[in-house]
Amino acid sequence: MNWLGAGRAQGYLRLLAAMNLAMLGWLLATSHQGIDANGFLLGSDFLSFWTTGRMLPAGSNPYDAAAHIVAQRQFFASSDGFTAFFYPPSFLPFCWPLGLLPYFAALAAWLAATGAAWFAVARAWARACGVSGGVVLALAFPAVPIVITHGQTSFLVAALLGLGLLLVPGRPALAGALLGLATIKPQFGLLVPIALIGAREWRTVAAAAVTALALALAAALAFGPQVWADWIAASGRAQAAMAQGAVDYGKMVSPFAALRLTGAPVALAYAVQGLVTLAVAATVAVVAWRRGWTPGLAALVLAGAPLATPFVLDYDMVLLAAPLLWLAGEGLRSGWRDWEKLALATAFIAPAFARPLALNVGLPIMPLVLAGLFVVVARRLSGRLNSL
């Protein structure tokens, strides 16, 4: 892909940024009283977080599906169901202040705060990797407007994981604290302890464990210890709902979802997902053990995170900002290897097409795109290992 030089890349990025901004502007311009032209509430998924924040001060159980539905519909009744809440109790302290504000004010504050955090972390990664043009890159990344339109937690989780993993060598205690906070969405942290233990980063492991336990204890003290039992019961319902396709497989980007979308049985889909998870985890473990902690290992963990869990959606692709920046920096500094530009470009642009292709054509492209990115990052690190 020698044709994709700096000039063309910058031109495409500016075009994508303009399209993203135009799409968001059109969405707002064509909405009426907070409802878009398709009848969806702006920041659709945020409704469950905000509703949880309203329920907690009243002593209501956010994991009681019936009570949650009633509370949601007091503000907005969707024609196609409701927005479920399956986050662990560790996330409840983040939800509580949201309920103190009106819905749209809370949504704006949430997106502004978490979006700024994600952008700051992405800039930190860009500086560490020697990549310029952070504003245009962020505005052009198709995953960004998907997070905004859903009002999701992805900015926050990506910021916590991204900064935590970047700070491991220099600020191990702070890194661990950030990684412990990231347990609010635990499925994306599966590879983190493997990498930390493999690299022998014991201070970060200890700080992460203490922070995660403190957050869990704070939730239990604030909302009652039974909240953890309620969440475990809700998690069982969530797993059953996922297997039955309650969340459309076309919106998900995991190997499990891809196989289910193409008609594979649940057992086969889980088996393949398990093999992929094991392969990704083994690769991370080997790199961590042999190389120790480096920004490359952090990038590998974040590139593998969406592959290692069956439940991951297109808005979670903001996690890829760090590995994309790291790979770009490596290519610019030491030259591009075969397939790296293609893997980088497709991983960057694919979130714009993954859901439409899966929902309308039944073609799940994202697992292959994610696998391609993970492989080229791992290969680049393996090349470094072989040169030692």
In words, what does this structure look like?
The protein has helices at residues 6-29, 46-55, 65-73, 92-95, 103-129, 134-140, 143-150, 154-166, 172-181, 192-198, 202-223, 226-244, 255-261, 266-291, 295-304, 321-334, 340-349, 351-361, 366-387. It starts with 5 loop residues before the first helix and ends with a helix. The model has no long low-confidence stretch (mean pLDDT 93). The protein contains 19 helices and no strands.
Tell me the number of helical segments per DSSP (H or I, 4 or more residues long): 19
Radius of gyration: 20 Å
Strand content: under 5%
What is the overall silhouette? globular
- Work out the number of β strands: 0
Structural class estimated from helices and strands: mainly alpha
Low-pLDDT ranges? none
Element order: H for helix, E for strand: HHHHHHHHHHHHHHHHHHH
The portion of residues assigned to helices is 55-70%
- What is the end-to-end distance? 29 Å
**Overall average residue pLDDT:** 93
Reported for the largest beta sheet, the result is:
none
